[in-house]
Amino acid sequence: MPPVGGQAVLEGVMMQNGDRIAVAVRRQDDQKIVVRDLPIKQVLPRLSKIPVIRGVFRFVSMLVLGIRALNLSASLAFPDDEQLGKGGTAITMIVAVAIAVGVFVVLPLFVVNSFESLRAGNSVVFNLIEGVFRLALFLAYVFAISRMKEIKRVFQYHGAEHKTVHAYEAGLDLTVDNARTYTTLHPRCGTAFLMIVLVIAILVFSLAGNPTLWLKLLSRILLLPVVAGVSYEVLQYTGRHADRRLVRAFSAPGLWLQRLTTAEPTDDMLEVAIASLKHVTETVTERDKAVADTAAGADDLASDRNPACAT
What we know:
Blueprint: E1 5-9, E2 12-17, E3 20-26, E4 33-37, H1 53-77, H2 86-113, H3 116-119, H4 123-146, H5 149-169, H6 176-180, H7 190-205, H8 213-240, H9 245-261, H10 267-281, H11 284-295, E5 303-305
Parallel strand pairs: 4-5
Antiparallel strand pairs: 1-2, 2-3, 3-4
Helix pairs in contact: 1-8, 2-4, 2-8, 4-7, 5-10, 7-8, 7-9
């Protein structure tokens, strides 16, 4: 059974099964579930299969895909609201990356470098303190946004995504009753990836030693692809060997962090996640039958699927 995954979006869930991606949302005007395909185009597919390098490609593609999925979910869930065009989407992504690098890479470096004893001291100690400060900053950020009402709904859909994936990986029928019994935590979650990135960054950045501030800053930026690539391989390994004791111990902080980024979903949210996962895992014949059932009024999820979008 191939691995599946996804992410929470506005009032819904995006699911991916290989090159098949779908976004399912609950439309806010009539409360129906709407499912749409989200086509992707692979860039340099050969390079994207090389260990470490593939992690960089995966990180960039998931960032782009995530923004596209959010835009699609907004247009489906709130069709009357004004949506971002391609130019607006590109600007949003660039600004988001710039802010993330500024807050979680540049700021910790400048703060720690402001202490002369650390600036002139051991490079390992410098990078360790910088990494701890970066981690504390990230945890504070996640905790702060988790208190926001709108973000909490997204985190509930995040929990629905994980529960549904767990049920699928267990080989169970994708039903609300089956999905409800599972945990909202999952070892392959992007949240776990971010925690791994923060840890790997300490090790990788230490390779640059303790030069002047601007050389430190340049090294951080140049080494970010290495951090992303190595972190991706670690995440893949922990996902494949989650039953090993040492791996479980290493993965534990990422799972703890998910207690902030996931929340217990409602049954309505599980229905949306199930609709998205079914769309990317069932065969074309099964999807055609589901569309016919919907037209006959027999679809218990009231899913509004478009046959022209089926892959």
